[in-house]
Amino acid sequence: MQVNPQKYPQLIFGIRTVLAEEGAVGLLKGWAPTAIGYSLQGAGTWSSSKLLSADIFYSRLMPMVCFLR
Fold this sequence. Notes:
The chain has helices at 11-22, 24-28, 31-68. The protein is mainly alpha-helical.
């Protein structure tokens, strides 16, 4: 849709055009790179948040929390 705004002016027209020109398989093109990208992003976000939260909470914040109690 980003390539040719005249050919794909709105989402529904874009879907109809792709279905007419390429069939239902045309709607599935690009799913693999998208899935890989989201998987890598999710893995990076999850692992970095676990690493950082464990390091920061247990080594720096936990002693302060125990001290304040």
